[in-house]
Write a structure and sequence with these properties.
The chain is mostly beta strands. The protein has two domains: 179 residues, 6 Propeller (Neuraminidase); 170 residues, Jelly Rolls. It has two helices and 24 strands. The strands form six sheets. Strands 2, 4, 5, 7, 11 and 13 form a six-stranded antiparallel sheet that branches. Strands 3, 6, 8, 9, 10 and 12 form a six-stranded antiparallel sheet that branches. Strands 15-16-17-18 form a four-stranded antiparallel sheet, with no helix packed on it. The chain starts with 14 loop residues before the first strand and ends with a helix.
Length: 372
C-alpha cells in the first residue's frame, strides 16, 4: 500500500541490534547448552493428508521415515515434546530428511515448513500457534545422504507446557522442484536461553530511520539516515554511520556518510566489493532531481563517492550489491514508486521486465566500475 509521508518532527526512533551475549545463544552461530530432544518417525503420527510410514533400507541399515509426496499437497505429520528444561525460554526446530531416489540432485530443491503450538493449562490450543516460513534447500547429489534443515530458529516457549510440532512438505510451492517423495526421519527440538536485551546504536533527537547493518572484516557497520519526519526528500535528512568491534555491545561516534545541501538522502542498498570493501547505495532527492550515489568504504568510517550512474529508466531504489559466481557483482533495482499502480515494478505484468532490465543495467554499470 502507498506510504504516508506525514511529517513527524518530534519522533526519535531508536535503532538497535542484539548484543554479543545474545548471539552466544543464537542457533545460527553457536550450539545451545542443552542437547536436542529428538522425535523419530515412530514417535510422530499423521496430522493431515495421507503420508506413509515406510522403511528406507540400504545394506543392513533400515530407517523408518515418513514419506512426504513431491506431488500431493497437504501432507504433514505431528508429534509432541515434553521435558523441556525448566530454565529454557525458546526452542529451535530442525528436521532430518533423506531420500532413496536415484534422481536426486543438487539441481533440485524441496520446501518444508513447521507448525508450532503449546498445550498450556487453561489455554486454547491455538493461543500460541505459529506458522513457520517455508524453507527451501537443495537436495543431495546422491541417495541415502541425510540433510538437517533449520525450520525455526527461535520459538518462545513455556517450558512447563507440552510442545506440539507439525512438519509439512510444500510441493505446491514453486520453489519445490523435486517431484519425487522424500523421507522425514527425525525432528530435532533444541532448547534455547532467552535473548539478551538489545543494545542501542543511535538515539539522537530526530527521525532516525531505515538502518542497515554490514559486516566489514572484524567489525560491524551500522548506516542509517536521520531527518525531520517520515519523508525521503527532506533537506535535513542525511546518512550517518557507526561501527562496532565487539559484536554490537558498544558503538563508535557518529560519522557523516553523505549530507548534500538541498537534498534528502537515504541509504538503500549495501554489500562488499571483490576486495572486501563496503559498498553503499544512497538515494539523493532534491531540487526536482532524483539520484543514486554509490559510496565505498574500507573502514566503515570514511565513505568515498564512486559514481552517480545515469540509467535509461530512473530507479526508484537500487538494492543490495551481491556476488554471482562467474558473473561478478550485481545489484537489482525497481522503477515506478511505492504505490500499487500498474506502472510500478510489482504492478500488472511489469515485474519480470523490470527485474531483467535492472539486472542487465546494473551488471553493465558494475562492469564499467571494474567491480564485475
Amino acid at each position: 500500500m502507498p506510504l504516508s509521508f506525514a511529517r513527524l518532527a518530534s519522533l526519535a526512533l531508536i535503532v538497535t541490534v542484539f548484543d554479543a551475549a545474545a548471539w552466544a545463544e543464537s542457533p545460527s552461530t553457536a550450539a545451545s547448552r542443552w542437547s536436542p530432544i529428538g522425535l523419530n518417525a515412530n514417535q510422530m503420527s499423521i496430522a493431515t493428508g495421507q503420508p506413509s510410514l515406510v522403511v528406507m533400507s540400504k545394506g543392513s541399515t533400515h530407517l523408518p521415515v515418513w514419506s512426504l509426496s513431491g506431488g500431493t499437497a497437504g501432507q504433514s505429520v505431528a508429534g509432541v515434546v515434553t521435558g523441556l528444561p525448566g530454565d529454557c525460554a525458546a526452542v529451535k526446530v530442525e528436521i532430518v530428511v533423506i531420500t532413496n531416489e536415484e534422481t536426486t540432485s543438487a539441481a533440485f530443491d524441496d520446501v518444508y515448513r513447521v507448525h508450532l503450538s503449546q498445550l498450556a493449562e487453561g489455554e486454547d490450543v491455538t493461543e500460541r500457534y505459529v506458522l513457520g516460513t517455508p524453507v527451501r534447500t537443495a537436495l543431495p547429489a546422491a541417495p541415502f545422504v541425510s540433510r538437517t534443515i533449520l525450520l525455526e530458529s527461535h520459538y518462545a516457549v513455556d517450558p512447563a507446557a507440552t510442545l506440539w510440532v507439525r512438519i509439512q512438505r510444500e510441493p505446491t510451492d514453486p520453489r519445490d522442484s523435486f517431484t519425487r517423495p522424500t523421507g522425514l526421519a527425525m525432528v530435532k527440538v533444541t532448547p534455547l536461553a532467552a535473548l539478551q536485551p538489545a543494545r542501542v546504536v543511535q538515539e539522537a533527537k530526530g527521525y532516525n530511520s531505515w538502518p542497515m547493518l554490514q559486516a566489514l572484516g572484524d567489525k560491524l557497520v551500522c548506516v542509517y539516515s536521520r531527518g525531520g519526519g517520515h519523508t525521503i526528500g527532506d533537506d535535513a535528512r542525511a546518512v550517518y554511520a557507526r561501527t562496532s568491534t565487539d559484536g554490537g555491545q558498544t558503538w563508535s561516534a557518529e560519522t557523516v556518510v553523505s549530507d548534500t545541501l538541498g537534498y534528502g538522502e537515504v541509504e538503500v542498498g549495501k554489500g562488499l566489493d571483490a576486495d572486501g570493501a563496503m559498498l553503499l547505495w544512497v538515494r539523493r532527492i532534491g531540487k526536482g532531481e532524483w539520484h543514486h550515489d554509490l559510496y565505498r568504504s574500507t573502514d566503515g568510517v570514511k565513505f568515498t563517492l564512486v559514481t552517480t550512474p545515469k540509467l535509461d529508466v530512473r530507479p526508484m531504489q537500487i538494492t543490495d550489491v551481491f556476488a554471482v559466481p562467474e558473473v561478478g557483482l550485481m545489484a537489482l533495482w525497481f522503477a515506478g514508486d511505492y504505490g500499487d499502480k500498474p506502472t510500478n515494478a510489482w504492478g500488472g505484468g511489469n515485474a519480470e521486465l523490470s527485474a531483467v532490465r535492472g539486472t542487465r543495467i546494473c551488471k553493465a554499470l558494475l562492469t564499467i566500475l571494474g567491480m564485475a
